Each structure stands twice: as C-alpha cells, then as structure tokens.
Amino acid sequence: MNLQTISNILKNESHNLRTPMNAILGFSKMAQNLLSSEDAYYYSKIYNAALKMQRTLDKAMGLCQLDYAFNKRTKSEIVGHVLVVDDDIMNRQVAEMLLTRFGLKVDLASGGVDALEAVTANNYDVILMDLQMPGVDGFITSKAIRNKGITNIPIIALTADLSLESRKKCSEVGMAGFLTKPIVPNKLHSTLEQWLG
Predict the structure, then answer these.
(1) Which CATH number fits domain 81-196: 3.30.70.20, 3.90.79.10, 3.40.50.300, 3.40.50.2300?
(2) pLDDT tens-digit readout, 73-110
(3) Is pLDDT of 69 > 90?
C-alpha cells in the first residue's frame, strides 16, 4: 500500500472520524457552563483528546500528500549524517522519513540537551535545528555548539518565523541557513544538496 492510497483512505474515513470530533469540539461554551464541575472535568478530557486526534489526522493527511508529491519527481540521493533537533515527535518523524528517503543517515534529538550530547558523541555533516523548543531553545543550543568549538557543521534553522529579527538572531549564534516549517520536501532536498552535494 503506497502513501497515496493511505492518503485517500484517510480522506474517505476522515468524515467518520471528524463527525464525532466536530460534535465534541462544537459543544457550545454556554452548554459547557451548564455542566456540573465533575462533568465539565470529564468533558475537558474528551475535548482535549478530540482536538489532539483532529490535529494528528490533519498532519497524517498532509504528510501522505507531501510524500506522494515528492516521489512523483526523481531526486538524487545525498550522502551524509544529519542530526534533527525538534521537540515535536511528529516533526521529527516527518524529517526522519524524508531524510532517509534522500539516502541520509539520521539521528533525532528531542531538545537542546539531547542535541548537545549527540553532537559531542557523533560527527554530523548537518544539523537541522528547531528554534522554538521549551527549556533550551534552538538559539541557545546553536550557541552552545559553537562555544564547544564545533564550527564546521552547518546548522540550519527550522522555523515558521522568518522575520528579520529571527534571521539576525540565527546569524548571531552561528546558524548557516533557514528552512520553513512545515517542511517542504523539495526545498529540504535542495538545501541539503548545497551543503552535502
């Protein structure tokens, strides 16, 4: 079963999943106020679960469509070892799938502390760094990597914020470039080719 088939199944079945989700998510605030405190507590649990399911379904459908579109074009393999640093598990999985498809060896880190440990223990050709992470963010992590004397590995920012201020801050901590989130496979491939080709 290919990813286009999975995408079609998700589209067809999403109505069955979304109908109860929409009923839960659409429950009016006025109606919620009429619930007892115990019922309101359980409703909030159900609401949060439905919201999480809806977001996961949207991401899964988007991932399948992106991967199908990318695979319609022939891409050359790239050789190298990449570290992906992102606190969101779905973002890490998307990046890992794409990078593996490109022919790259991939390691994953869920935050800045994990990234610093990985960089100390391994030789990477490129680091893909999420900027907005809880605790030790991408700016602090990149600066710490550079302060360790590791200046030869390009660090590419993964961000939805491409403001001039954000770009300037990335440059100040030693980052080599930017990729927008969500990741666009062709753009990711061409950016990595510049550094690894």
Answers:
(1) 3.40.50.2300
(2) 545 678 999 999 999 988 898 899 889 888 899 999 99
(3) no
* 173 phi, psi to nearest 5 deg: -95, 5
Residues 98/185, Cβ–Cβ less than 8 Å: yes
CB 82 within 8 A of CB 124: yes
| Tokens 């022939």 belong to residue | 74
List 156's β-bridge partners, or say none. 128, 177
Per-position b or e across 73-99, b if 16+ CB within 10 A of its CB: eeeeebebebbbbbbeeebbebbbbbb
| Predicted structure pTM score | 0.67
Give rounded-to-5 percent helix, strand, coil for the chain: 60, 10, 30
Domain ranges of the chain: 3-71, 81-196
Burial class (CB in 10 A: 0-12, 13-18, 19+), 159: buried
Can you say whether residue 135 is alpha, beta or left, with left for phi > 0 and alpha for psi between -120 and 50 degrees?
A: left
Beta strands in the chain, from DSSP E residues, in sequence order: 81-85, 105-109, 126-130, 155-159, 177-180
Identity (one letter) of the amino acid at 75? K
